[in-house]
Records
---
Amino acid sequence: MTISRRSLLRLAAGGSAAAALSQLTLASAMADTSTYRAMVGVFLFGGNDAWNMVVPTDGRYATYASQRGSGIALQQSSLVPLTGTPFGLHPSFDTLKPAWDEGALGVVLNAGTLFQPLTKSLYTSRPDLRPLNLLSHDDQQNQWQGGRMRATNVDGFMGRMNDRAEKANLPPLISIAGSHLALIGDRTAPLVLPSSGAISRYGYNAASTDPATKARQAALDVFADGSSYGAVTDLTGKGISSAYAQAVAANTVVSATTSVVDKFFVNPTTGVALTSEISRQLLRAARMIEARASLGHAKQTFFVSQGGYDTHVGQLGSHINLYRDLSMALAGFYNAMKALGLGNNVTAFTMSDFGRVFKGNTQAGTDHAWGSNHLVLGAALAKGKIHGRYPDMSFGGPEDSANDGRWIPSIATEEYLGAIAQWYGVSAADLPYIFPNWSTWNGGGRGPVPMFG
């Protein structure tokens, strides 16, 4: 991936107390939180085999089991039924069953990166219409996050959304998963928080008596007021001061000893606090949402992630733990939002590099493929809906880009993410800026998935 120097500096600024260094000249604005909304992107790094996350339970199950093979296919009796539909979830998602029953969980089938709508015939005859470098982790992650399928991605859809958002002292675009392409905007930068602990100034100790430390800290204090040293020094000094102030504001939230949301991030069976990385990230997002008014945020956008989905070997065992951690973290997050009275105001959604080959490999794993299924969580969703179409499971058939079940997506990332952006409040005029290929997917019978209602 090619990243400009400007973008690299933005990301570098995000990873420390200088998280908002590039927010140098943004004005303060106390936001109106009466129409508050938040979107929470959950990126599953490695390529999630969501064909075992969402499984048909009707007559198609026999074909599913035969085509996947005994080393990959789940037992039908183990699936968590999605009442009212012919589908079930992986058994580790049992903690999300209440959300489905309440109408707050949705499923989007066979979504993925597309440059334009593709049939099997077009895929075979027109390689120039395919997304670049299919099956590549880096390239497909960048295309999901950046939205350009046949060009270099240097910024991301969340960053571009933040470019058009109302500005606040503390950026409303917040990552708790490190620095990623999705977060880069043209004029704005995210706040990047650690998943545990507070933000600290490297090498800073106000109580230190060490002469070298005291001298360095004194120099930084002088530099922070650089008005007498020229415009560049003054601007940079103000940026550093602003970044430190933002770190203090964020620390007030993440280090608070009491919070309404903490008690929901527990194992529902044992009551023990959740400690997985994805649960820590979502808990931190929940705390920032809890503090939305004091932070002056009318809207917030979050990026969190979970790794480990490159399951070439022993997938069944890997998925048990990955999905259990993800399910309990999402359930805790959803229950926390309900406790805050924000069930209808917050939507979480999954993304991943790509789906995986339907046919298992010889190591009881699966290899890189293309289309995949995704979960959306929030009380604003249309209730009890499965969106899209499960593919024809014929190997080498009309939806297989190879001969082993590498399904051509039937829903584009723009149709999936664009629906969430519209619900979030992105204007029709801004959608082409946020999704560079929007015109391809908004007209002619295509458009945002009708997830909300």
---
Amino acid sequence: MTDTRTVGVLGTGIMGAAMARNLVRAGHTVRVWNRTRAKAEPLAADGAHVAGTPAEAVRDADVVLTMLYDGGTVLEVMREAAGALRPGVAWVQSTTAGLESVGELAGLAGEHGLVFYDAPVLGTKQPAEAGQLVVLAAGPAEGRAAVTPVFEAVGARTVWTGEDGAAATATRLKLVANSWVLAATAATGEALALAKGLGVDPQNFFDLISGGPLDMGYLHAKAALILEDRLVPASFAVTTAEKDARLIVEAGERNGVRLDVAAAGAERFARAAALGHADEDMAAAYFASFDDKAGS
């Protein structure tokens, strides 16, 4: 095979659209589909073909990339698409899904003779647009030549976690990483909310921890979104953060681990969504500390 592929991308939200654009820029032939077609249409100007159905998007593909909301959505969409795929096609499953869902998706791949790669990504909108994601991947070594050019187009680094995609070793690592990201996001919002409630200038807090072990770039990045009212467009939406938090809690429960912070985080994201912040950046969990959308 050459270094260019025909790639069917199913799901063109914040992450999927950016990944599709980088695939086009790398010289791949890209066909995209999204349930809400209007979200996929702008990709035509970048050189992607916008398909009307999942089957149309994956027909003649060498690689299929799924980047949808959750595992259940991926299963539904791939059941529509699978009949148009020839055996041996590589399926790169990049949606953050639950451990049980990954097993179901791998089973569907097996039924249709597809080569399954569990390949969630670490990163949000900006690194996705820059092609700087970290790809966490698990799947058979003998088929990696087919998917490596795809990973190189969307990411700066690929971390291989195993050769059995069904074992979800990549998704397991992604859930651990996301548990830290979501906890840090919630903690940032709570610190700023407490500062507001106590009449403390947030800059005094930042100055206090500056340069020490408690300081971190992520704190400043998320705090700036809140303090400067730059929560739209979202890098990672509140609703998606809630979904991931619940997947993390579920994974812990299934493996005998109680995750109180993740469970509380899921409820904070849910409250923020109920206050009207569902589609804003996940930093908007800040507003869950107050009784109205304005955060007063």
---
Amino acid sequence: MSVEAVQADVSYQQPIRRELTHRTAVSEVFVTSLAARAAGRFVAGAQLPRMHAYYGDHLGALAGRHDLLAVMETARQTAIAITHEFYRVPLDAVFLVRTFNGTGIPGPAWVSGPEPTDLVLGVEVVQLHGTGAGVCGIDMILEISCDGTPLTTVDGSFSWVSPGEWSGLRTVFRKSQGLSPVVGPAVSVAATDPAAVGRRDPRNVVVGAVERDGDRGAAPLAIDPSHPFLFDHRLDHIPGSALLEASRQTALLSLPGGPERRQLIGVASRFDRFTELDLATECRAEATATAAGHAQAHCVIRQGDTTTAELDLAFLEAGAAG
């Protein structure tokens, strides 16, 4: 254990309770400890796996490296667990994500070595939405480090509702879209070639064939509700984690040079509406900047004429990540 971890009083002995992170599979819980430091300030320990069937399934620039999305998932788990453990949010509450952003700091800590990667997450609550017992949302910043070296800054804004409120919210929303309250089967789309999006396992491909027009590309989402990570538990919509991956894959298909040399290093995302499983969904990506060692893309998730989410992604080329 690093000196930093000892000073922060974190532990890596075992995962925290899975229900605190809204995970069904114990193996998908990365957070190992939680502690309060001061009003609105907390610290967490977490451990990234050396191999992972989803986050570790990469070719090219990400092979043998930790995935920024794995670090962001660790931050998501930490944020939700803190609301349950320290703000008395009921365990059956359903969470809605408004924004979720991550900025990685290039360096050798991204390389997956012979030992598990222990993280320290310093958490600051910057705003509570609601008052007293009526608190229904929270904004957080998480500074994530590895062995004393800064790795990633993650921030997010999310709220929660009771199961009953969620049911009513979903019924009203689907009715407004002319849909039945009962969610139908996911739209079937043939997934594209795994190597084209830097994957080995076809199960981890979430988009179909891309249509390119210069520095722009559009691909239909190919969502499998039985995916053991993206749908760790039953969901009635396409989750943000799948939209993040769909955006990455569409950007890799659309940016010049392909996926072999691209490592995702930055995400800024906004989720405005539910993205329905039983409606055809498309991700559109457009290169917004390209320079030696760097590339950026703006992605839009669309269902019909409606935008449900927007994401800006930043990539490093292999060799620029340290």
